Amino acid sequence: MFTMSLRVRDYECDLQGVVNNSVYMNYLEHARHEFLLAHKINFAELTAQQIHLVVTNAEMDYKGSLKPQDDFYITVECVKESRLRFAFHQHIYRSSDDKLIMQAKVVGTALNPQGRPEIPAQLNALFPD
């Protein structure tokens, strides 16, 4: 299970003093990119090779709120859903009390240079047979 830590920045919060709901999507995306880098998969290099990782579905279930200066961590687990789809199961926890703030499932695929779904070998290597 991949884990990364972050801290809420003041400008990520709305007038109610909590992290704006749209910011959580950025947190999740950043964690997915870091997960890939930790597995030697560079999102930018794939794009340069005209291999595009795309999100096809995102489900987010909010359980609580983060506030300015809260430290938190995100867990990421990637599973193969089918021959052409994979899913990132992600959780965000507040560090001070390990309270679950959000759980998410982000489903994606990869598009080859011709724009057709195809999982590249380096990504496929994440999924043992």
From TrEMBL:
Protein source organism: Thiomicrospira cyclica (strain DSM 14477 / JCM 11371 / ALM1)
Source superkingdom: Bacteria
Pfam families in the record: 4HBT_2
MF GO annotations: fatty acyl-CoA hydrolase activity
Keywords (A to Z) from UniProt: Hydrolase
Keyword tRNA-binding: no
Protein name per Swiss-Prot or TrEMBL: Thioesterase superfamily protein
Family: Belongs to the 4-hydroxybenzoyl-CoA thioesterase family.
Hydrolase as UniProt keyword: yes
PANTHER family in the record: 4-HYDROXYBENZOYL-COA THIOESTERASE FAMILY MEMBER, NOVEL THIOESTERASE SUPERFAMILY DOMAIN AND SAPOSIN A-TYPE DOMAIN CONTAINING PROTEIN (0610012H03RIK)
